[in-house]
Amino acid sequence: MSDNTKQEKSSTGNRKKLKELLHKSDNRICADCNAPDPKWASANIGVFICVRCCGVHRSLGTHISKVLSVTLDEWSDEEVESMVEVGGNSYANSIYEAFLPREFSKPTADSTPEERAKFIRSKYEFQDFLKPSLRIVSSKSSFPSTSSFRSCESGKDKYSSLNSNLSEAGMIEFIGILKVKVVKGRKLAVRDMLSSDPYVVLTLGKQKAQTSVIKSNLNPVWNEELKLSVPQQYGPLKLQVFDHDIISADDIMGEAEIDLQPLITSALAFGDPDSLYDMQIGRWLKSYDNALLRDSSVRIADGNVRQEMSLKLQNVESGEIDLELQWISLTGFEN
């Protein structure tokens, strides 16, 4: 059996397990606000959540909550098994909300972003509603599941500082998720003796994501997908290419800015892409003051909003990068 066939069988089996778990009665509502029909999940915590709570979970960081779409993302065997091991929203909430004060009301589907963020951060980040002798063992290099508990001494006065110390990220309401597939580079600049070891860094606000390093290649093929959360107030997506260097600081190999407005404005204007035929819905035009090599169309294809583009790297002697963008809305309709 080929590796591709094994991967397809594994993917099909994972989708079946997730679907069966999602159909359990307690998983048909969001674990945090009871909104119906959740389409997102925290793979390491083991709960199904709605699109609005999903935005807050993503702001916590993957070391606390690793958010995946039930229908759009590829799940690993380990992530699916983690969900199955927890058993669903009821079991997870019996742990995370075991000591929920009577006067502390859970948010509803209509709650404000501030109310939602306050509750979710109290529940998962500060762990205020756990039994005092328990907390989740977590680190930024691993994704703990709800079943990973150990005894430890509880921290003091965590909740008392919540109102005054809500981080900026925790109060942001995200409007969508941007998937960026870094496809390949062409004619990249030489930064070592004869070649370079390039990698790509994407920056949106305070968020960063980067590809792997490809050794000694001026025409690298990555085909790597990176994800960034998009807040209501968003700016351009910044792309930088670097040459990895073990001894000294990494050298810049060019940069470009990507205007996200044509993609996001078109997507929000047309609504749910699942209800539309394949069609062009927008365009980012090449001009003297942007990095486009040619006009870039925004299209609905197979129920997804996508945009392909080729960029000429700026402030460097040579270099081009091909990208594929996909927009997933977190407002107005479920994905």
UniProtKB/TrEMBL annotation:
InterPro entries for the chain: ARF_GAP_AGD11/12/13, ARFGAP/RecO, ArfGAP_dom, ArfGAP_dom_sf, C2_dom, C2_domain_sf
Molecular function per GO: GTPase activator activity; phospholipid binding; zinc ion binding
Alphabetical keyword list: Calcium, GTPase activation, Metal-binding, Zinc, Zinc-finger
Domain spans labelled Arf-GAP: 15-129
Domain of life per record: Eukaryota
Coiled coil: none
Protein name according to UniProt: ADP-ribosylation factor GTPase-activating protein AGD12
The organism's taxonomic lineage, starting at the top: Eukaryota, Viridiplantae, Streptophyta, Embryophyta, Tracheophyta
